[in-house]
Design a protein that fits this description.
By secondary structure, this protein is mainly α. It has 18 helices and no strands.
């Protein structure tokens, strides 16, 4: 009976609708419990959050294979928005269909929203931010260990041969050099599709594959140019616009629709629109909002919650949060069912393979500066090495490691 239940709940969303409602409701409750916990413990940014999701969805619960997880990760790199939140939404859809899509995304966002809302209330009332440096001193090295182990596992699946190894290394090098991450993602996909087409063409000309290759080039060019055009449209808003809930919603909706390049690009949007153009925030308030987003778990985009509270209280916080995350739910609802179809097409599958290996390379590139910031003395290096050894030897819940890191951080900082 348990085996049948596992098989049923691991089916694709299209087959889930044919199964008893109780199985779907159980899967939805399981998703809510998991992503609420990840939302409360997801320190360290998108790379760390995705590493925790991989551990839960692939290693511990075996909801999907590493290849399937990589495909979802690659799909999130093709659309704007916060990657970690979109991975939660994707996993929810794969696990429990449309209800899972909504439940996983909302459960992952809710804890960070509540914590940031509390921080915003404290900030407005007392003019102070909660300090968590001692905790983060021990937690950050554990996060680096978690991300490193996740990257190693994903590399085994993403690097299929020498070509993909070279492609991944090139993407990693260019990312460290400051190349545009959006161009890297789509260029890697287009190059992988081109090499696959050329290999097949040598074995016999295929007109259909040539036509598909042109579609790949057109799609790549459009997806690189369109976000830039939308970003320019976003920045063409009238200056000195008075505050209103509608204007707040429209601003953060546009940000959610055009935010390529990770959560840190959000800083440029907020500074350009809310500080320089509309003068709704001061530079100091913006820096404090960013600090709260970095010190709290979950997606960095909950910085919008802090900004919304400063501008319009609880209602403003909810409006800003809903607006910035809404595009991710819509885009995943549209693109999620297409991921298995992309894999069935050889040309689209090759494109997705290129995007996947570049996604792992970008994840590694992001980890380099994070590692430099987190591992700056003997104690942090020892914590990271110990965490890595434990993760490689044991299937331990990362929450326990994070908790242990937090305790170590408080002890070490107190004795310093």
């Amino acid at each position: 009976m348990a085996t049948e239940r596992r098989r049923a709940t691991q089916s694709m969303p299209g087959t889930l609708v044919l199964q008893p409602a109780i199985l779907r409701s159980n899967a939805t409750r399981e998703l809510i419990g998991l992503f609420l916990r990840l939302g409360f413990t997801g320190f360290g940014g998108p790379a760390a959050n995705i590493a925790m999701m991989k551990d839960e969805a692939v290693t511990r619960r075996q909801w999907m294979t590493e290849a399937e997880f990589l495909d979802l990760m690659g799909a999130t790199n093709l659309i704007p928005g916060p990657n970690s939140t979109q991975m939660a939404i994707h996993i929810g859809y794969r696990r429990a269909g449309w209800m899972g899509l909504l439940a996983a995304g909302a459960a992952f966002i809710a804890p960070a929203t509540a914590i940031v809302l509390l921080c915003a209330w404290v900030y407005r009332k007392y003019g102070l931010l909660p300090q968590a440096q001692a905790i983060l001193y021990g937690v950050k090295p554990v996060i680096i260990a978690m991300v490193g182990c996740a990257i190693l596992g994903l590399m085994k699946t993403a690097v299929k041969n020498r070509f993909f190894a070279a492609l991944g290394f090139a993407a990693f090098t260019l990312a460290l050099a400051g190349a545009d991450v959006l161009v890297l993602r789509f260029a890697a996909g287009a190059l992988a599709a081109t090499v696959d087409w050329a290999w097949r063409f040598r074995r016999g000309p295929e007109r259909q594959s040539a036509r598909e290759l042109l579609w790949v080039f057109g799609f790549t060019a459009a997806m690189i140019a369109l976000p830039d055009a939308l970003t320019r449209l976003n920045r063409s808003s009238a200056s000195m616009q008075p505050y209103s809930p509608v204007a707040l919603f429209a601003f953060f909706l546009k940000v959610g629709m055009t935010l390529y390049g990770g959560g840190y690009v959000l800083i440029a949007f907020l500074r350009d629109g809310l500080v320089h153009q509309w003068h709704w925030l001061t530079e100091a308030q913006l820096l404090d909002a960013i600090a709260v987003g970095q010190l709290t778990p979950g997606p960095l985009l909950t910085t919008a919650t802090f900004v919304g509270y400063l501008l319009g209280g609880v209602a403003g916080a909810l409006i800003a949060t809903f607006a910035i995350f809404l595009p991710s739910f819509i885009l995943i609802a549209i693109s999620g069912p297409l991921v298995p179809l992309l894999r069935r097409s050889r040309m689209a599958g090759a494109f997705l393979d290129g995007v996947n290996v570049s996604a792992v390379a970008l994840m590694a590139a992001v980890t380099v500066p994070l590692g430099k910031a987190a591992l700056f003395d003997g104690s942090t290096i020892i914590i990271a090495l110990a965490g890595t050894a434990i993760l490689l030897r044991c299937r331990i819940n990362p929450v326990w490691l994070i908790s242990a890191g937090a305790v170590c951080g408080m002890i070490l900082q107190r004795s310093a």
